[in-house]
Amino acid sequence: MPAARPRASFEPIPPDFDVRTFVETADNFQYADRISYEMIANNGIEQFEKLVLLHVIIGGKPLVIDGFEQVLDPWPFTPSWLRGNMGDKPENARNLSSKSNIPLTIKHYLKNMSKLTEQFFEDAERYRDKTRQRVYLKDIDCPDVWRKKVKEHIPPGLFYLNESTGEIGGPGALDEPGGRKGRGIGRAGDLMSSLPPEMRAENLMCYIGHEGTYTPAHREMCASLGQNIMVHASTTVGEDGKPERPGSSLWFMTESKDRHLVAEYWLSTLGHDIEVENHFAQLIAWKKAPFKTYVVEQRTGDFILIPPLAPHQVWNRGTRTMKVAWNRTTVETLEMAMDEALPASRIVCRDEQYKNKAIVYYTLLKYSNLIKIARAQSELGGDQEEMIHRSLKIRHVQRDFKRLFDLYKNILLSEMFAPEAQHGREHPELLPFDGNVTCAYCRCNIFNRFLTCKSCKNLYSEDIEEPYDVCMDCYCMGRSCGCQSGYTWVEQWRWKDLMHRYEEWRAQIVEIDGHITEKTPLPLQEERRYFSKKTLAQVCQEQLKIRPFVDIKNPNPANGESEEDEPQIDANGYPKPAKKKSKQWLSKHKSCHVCLHRHPKWKMAFCTNCDYAYCYGTLFRAHDTMPLAIMEDPAWKCPHCKRICNTGKCRSDPRQNSYEPKGTLLGHDTRKVADPRSVECLVDFSVSNLNWVREEDVAMENRRAAAERAKLANPEFDDRYMDLDHDQDRNGITYSPVHENGDFEGHMNGANGSGLPRASDDPWNESSLYPDPDPNAEIPRLGKRNREDEGEENNTSRKKKKNKPKKSKDDTPQRLEPKSTSGKQYQKEVQRKLLEEAKRKDQFILVAARMKGKSKIVKLRLDSDLLEAIQNRPVLERPAPDQERESSDEPEDDTGNILQSDLMAARKPVVTPAQKEKAQKTFRVRVNNDETYSTRKRNPEANLPGKPGRPGQRKSRFEEITIDSEEDDDFVNGYGGPGTGRSTGRTSTWLARKNEGEEDLPTELPEDFRDGLINPNREKNIERNRIRNQQLAERRKSMPSKPTAKVRPPGAGRPRKSTSALPDAIGADEDEDGVGEDDDTGEALLLAQSAAAALEAQRKAEAEKARAAAAEKEAQENLRAKMGIAEVYFGGSDEESLTGFINTLAAEDEPLAHERAESSSSPAANEPPLQSTNSIFSKPGMEGKKIKIVSKRSGDGATKTATTTTVTAPLTGFTAVNKKASKAINVSDSESDSEDEIPAKAPAPKRPVGRPPGRPSLVPTRGTSSGRGRGRPRGRPRKSG
Question: Exposed end of the chain (fewer CB within 10 Å): N or C?
Answer without folding.
Answer: C
